[in-house]
Design goal:
This protein is an alpha/beta fold. It contains 9 helices and 9 strands. The longest helix has 19 residues. The structure holds thiamine diphosphate. Thiamine diphosphate (TPP) binds next to strand 3, helix 3 and strand 5.
Length: 248
């Protein structure tokens, strides 16, 4: 059976690069909203990275925050719009580099928001510079000979960083296969269910290829995602708690 394109997704001229995973993630978000009947209520906060291209691709109420700040803008919106599901949508550079402080404190306060981070291992929008999640050995325009553990440090793993925090939900999915895409869809649904029960901070990271900045054809970048990224960043559910009582 052919799945219908969700009502809130539309095609646009200014789309993503061929083989980019963002389109899949966006569709999953729209499908989740449709399935949960939340399309009219969602307030999304996007970054200025590649994720901001969704402004041309989806029709949800959307606010754009400064680079790295979607989590904290989303937390503020949730405080005054408690009945609305609120989503912070950003890339790994935004979430784990310039916006890491905001992300950590939103998690420490168990803010009742859903954060979706698309992890492509680079600062995609600005030309593919090394990001906190660039994997060891990965070549980027600012790590020409590959990320080196001694020189550049280890890749940032949000599951390790937030895994012991008292938050509601932490999971990592990937767009590398149909099976993992289906799982990611369930992670999104779980996160929004938890938000509706005021359980607190939920973060779902999705591993995504960036063929343009990885300098690889789309099929090879899926291979790299499977063989390299998923090894450094295992997928699955890492935190699932029912804390309750957090009202926006
Ligand atoms: C305060 C500020 N610093 C830097 C930038 C430049 N900038 C815009 S997008 C971007 C990279 C975004 O990378 P990431 O968050 O990983 O998302 P991606 O584009 O890879 O999806 C940067 C550095 C900016 N616009 N504002």
């Amino acid at each position: 059976m052919k799945k219908q394109v969700p009502e809130r997704v539309q095609h646009s001229k200014a789309g993503f690069c061929p083989g980019c995973g963002y389109g899949v993630v966006i569709r999953l978000i729209a499908e989740t909203m449709e399935a949960m009947k939340l399309s009219d209520k969602l307030i999304a906060v996007v970054d200025v990275g590649c994720g901001s291209l969704i402004l041309d691709n989806w029709r949800f109420d959307t606010v754009q925050a400064a680079h790295g700040r979607p989590t904290i803008v989303a937390a503020g919106i949730k405080k005054v719009r408690k009945e609305n599901p609120v989503l912070a949508f950003l890339g790994d550079g935004a979430a784990y580099s310039i916006g890491l402080g905001e992300l950590m404190h939103a998690a420490l306060r168990n803010e009742n928001i859903v954060t979706i981070v698309v992890n492509n291992g680079v600062f995609g929008m600005t030309g593919g510079q090394k990001s906190p999640t660039t994997i060891i050995g990965q070549k980027t325009v600012t790590s020409r000979s590959g990320r080196d553990f001694i020189r550049d440090g280890q890749p940032f793993d949000v599951m390790k960083a937030l895994g012991k925090f008292d938050i509601a939900y932490l999971a990592r999915g990937s767009v590398e296969s149909v099976a993992l895409i289906s799982k990611a869809s369930r992670y999104f649904q779980k996160a929004f269910e938890k938000q509706s029960k005021n359980e607190g901070f939920c973060l779902v990271e999705i591993l995504s290829p960036c063929p343009t900045n990885w300098n690889l054809p789309p099929t090879d970048s899926i291979k790299m995602l499977k063989e390299n990224f998923s090894v450094t960043f295992p997928t699955g559910e890492f935190v699932e708690r029912t804390i309750g009582g957090k009202n926006g």
